[in-house]
Amino acid sequence: MDGEQAPREPALFLQCRLCIIRSQALDADTADQLLAAIEENGGDAFIHQSPAPLPPVNGFTHVVSPTIEFPGHDTVCDALIPVVKPQWIYASIAKYKLANPRQYNPDPRLFLNDVVVTCSDLPDGDKDAIIGGVLAMGGLYSSRLTLNTTHLVALTAESDKCRVVESKRLNTKIVLPHWFDDCLKLGKRIDERPYLLPDPEILYMRADAPVRTTENKDIIGASTPEPKSLQLETPIEARDDLIVFQGKKVMMSDDLGVDRLLSSMEQLIIKGGGQVVHDVRKTDIYICRYREGQDYILASRLGKDVGNLSWLFHLITRNVWTSPLRRLLHYPLSRSGIPGFQKFKISLSNYAGEARIYLENLIAASGAECTKTLKQDNTHLITAHGNSEKCTAAKEWSLNIVNHLWLEESYAKWQLQTVSDPRYTHFPHRTNLGEIVGQTKIDKFAIEEHFFPEEDGSSSAITASTAMQQKDTNKLNATATSSKPIRKTKAKNNNNTKQNSTLQVPNTATPQGQKNGKSVATSTTTTTPARGKERSLQTPLVSKFLSEGKENDTPSTTGSRKSKDIAAARLHEIAPDIALYEKEKKRVGGVIYGGRRKSDQNDETVSGSGRKRSMEPEDFSDDGEVSEMKKQKKSKPPVKIHLLITGYTRWVGNASQEDTDKSHLRSLGIQVVQDASKCTHLAARSILRTHKFANALAYSPKIITTEFITDCILKDRLLNPDEYPLRDPESESKYRFSLEDSRKRALKNKNKLLDGKMIYCVENIRGGFDAFKSIVETNGGQCALYRGRSGMAISGRRTAADEGQHAGGGDAEEVFLISGLEKSHMKLWPKFRTMVQDARKVPRIVGADWLLEIAMSQEWRSDDNFELCEADVQMADE
């Protein structure tokens, strides 16, 4: 408004009563600030210290917490009460209206809940698909570029919105649509770096180039179900800060087998404000090793937190509450394993560190056999990406190649998942799926169906369960709306399968609170038809433990049901909800969390002054900059130079400067490329023996100094590259070649210097096998990894290419192995010699310098100085 400030809403939170969960993730100062902000805006709030049991949930309308790891989270969601991050408070105050809670839901299964996306110059079909996927997974869409926009989806970095992001240096990531496609295919959020414009790796990097690994923190402390010892940073008697067991009663099962640690753990539980009990009916937490026994069944039916020793250690060492269902190996094991897994032999590839240990233990827990090496009698290969020798061998042997999601979801649902599901066979380019290991949760409804179904329990157990309901002190069933009804048969199941039937996102783990435009109590998705009927969508109006004989309950059965009857009943049950969801999707503004009130219809778009108000903060189009850009429609000049750069010190450790300079160079007509085959010019500070430099030489580009880049940027114009030739006589003398002569020979060789040659390379060669492989293949040869594996052989049959000399020179009978001087490499030499001699050829074991000098000089070199022998290893050790 001109000349005056917009009126502030006097009572923004007038109809809200908020529960602020204070924990290690939300300290006391932040909680007090939130409380003050809510009260200043007319709301009522109170602070609850986690992990103490929640008060009756009918006493508040929202729960504020940066994480879902607090006791009672499932109860809150079953009561249709939204859980929001603290940012929701500040966003609502900034907009003077309650923000959409879906964007601020901390549930990790809403893997796009932090995303606010806008699109630029995309086809309508792709745009609609991205918007639908983002909304389904907790994100928001904005038609305009705003300060809150986190991701801008574009095909190139030359659109108007991209220029605004660049010019204003916004904290907005410009990504290709492929990122959303891969995220939705996997049902997980992966790293955006390979998809970032202007130089996305997925478009320019080779398929066989090394893939970066990312540290995974989801599985720290959860990689094994049976920890050997309790690792504490401070002694038990000095541990005074433990609060994770405050107000909790803990029972330890007899099957743990930890007599020596039992007294120490009991001391820690008592120090943490807890109490050790020996009656499962009086406990809040039950710790056991296996999913068996009357105590396990009763504790599970009573809704207790049931976990294993690994989960208990995790609580003690981190002093932070987390659900035992959050991580697969924090829940007790089964002695028998998943049905059908006993016949499987599974090997792992491309997973490292804690992620590999976790998957090995998960394979063992599922009942399958985990093998270190891959053989033809293996049934499955689980890999983080498709580039490895194991992957190549698995394809040759027609083995099942899947990612870890197949194993995790089979374990979570306790049912063998089909390997033909596209989610399990999808490997995004330039992404190591090890970064999303450990994000799958236990499906509590599947576990109930297989391990403690109601119809399998005795009448005495049900009676005890009903009696326990009246004496329970955890307050979860204190009011009619504060808890969920227990199911009387397997036929009653979670609402999740309904949502999975409607959303067009395949098999993703769908969180609480997205159904028919309302927040609905859900846990994890499933496509298992044996679940039977599903729970009603109404808000629970009865206490947690129903009495026998309710007219709305499905009668219990004594025998097993046929899957066809169950599937038909389930489809009949969810048909009205499917129709209702399709109707909700057409509503203006999309399906919103919790639905709309009639009184809110005008409040969404009209402020108190009667002026139409945007749902987002003021965008950049208000200052006319975007409009001016659209008027000018200034396009970038055509590309005159395709430049490959290596060893440019200005960009070392400064990614933002690199992005800015690359954009600047593109505006001058210089396109920075990563593929040596596409470059017309190579820029380097000196002659470098890098794979970029060696590969580029094979294509005979003009070689210039990196001063050309700096001067073009400083002078803001395209200079003549011929005035910046690279001259380095010292390196030419050192490496025994002339740079200009090498360029001339490269023109003559036409990338066939190593044509017809087969060169082997050890795995752990300095510089990496992939770098040497790219050099060999760029020069027309073939390169294979050599590990000394038995059964590997060279064909002794002579071909037309083997007659006489090869195209680049050298003896046709020679077979080369590139190796280092490590003893582990030397152990492979006898096997290599035997393999080559069996093929009636001559083995040559050479150092890495041999290949580098050939590639740099662009001529064949067979100097004996490059050949290695056992004496060289002994000299290196001395």
From TrEMBL:
<dbReference type="InterPro" id="IPR053036">
    <property type="entry name" value="CellCycle_DNARepair_Reg"/>
</dbReference>
<feature type="domain" description="BRCT">
    <location>
        <begin position="8"/>
        <end position="106"/>
    </location>
</feature>
<feature type="domain" description="BRCT">
    <location>
        <begin position="643"/>
        <end position="726"/>
    </location>
</feature>
<feature type="domain" description="BRCT">
    <location>
        <begin position="341"/>
        <end position="424"/>
    </location>
</feature>
<protein>
    <recommendedName>
        <fullName>BRCT domain-containing protein</fullName>
    </recommendedName>
</protein>
<dbReference type="GO" id="GO:1990683">
    <property type="term" value="P:DNA double-strand break attachment to nuclear envelope"/>
</dbReference>
<dbReference type="GO" id="GO:0035361">
    <property type="term" value="C:Cul8-RING ubiquitin ligase complex"/>
</dbReference>
<feature type="compositionally biased region" description="Polar residues">
    <location>
        <begin position="499"/>
        <end position="521"/>
    </location>
</feature>
<feature type="domain" description="BRCT">
    <location>
        <begin position="106"/>
        <end position="197"/>
    </location>
</feature>
<dbReference type="InterPro" id="IPR001357">
    <property type="entry name" value="BRCT_dom"/>
</dbReference>
<feature type="compositionally biased region" description="Acidic residues">
    <location>
        <begin position="617"/>
        <end position="626"/>
    </location>
</feature>
<dbReference type="Pfam" id="PF16770">
    <property type="entry name" value="RTT107_BRCT_5"/>
</dbReference>
<dbReference type="GO" id="GO:0005634">
    <property type="term" value="C:nucleus"/>
</dbReference>
<feature type="compositionally biased region" description="Polar residues">
    <location>
        <begin position="468"/>
        <end position="484"/>
    </location>
</feature>
<feature type="region of interest" description="Disordered">
    <location>
        <begin position="592"/>
        <end position="635"/>
    </location>
</feature>
<dbReference type="Pfam" id="PF12738">
    <property type="entry name" value="PTCB-BRCT"/>
</dbReference>
<dbReference type="InterPro" id="IPR036420">
    <property type="entry name" value="BRCT_dom_sf"/>
</dbReference>
<feature type="region of interest" description="Disordered">
    <location>
        <begin position="468"/>
        <end position="565"/>
    </location>
</feature>
<dbReference type="GO" id="GO:0006302">
    <property type="term" value="P:double-strand break repair"/>
</dbReference>
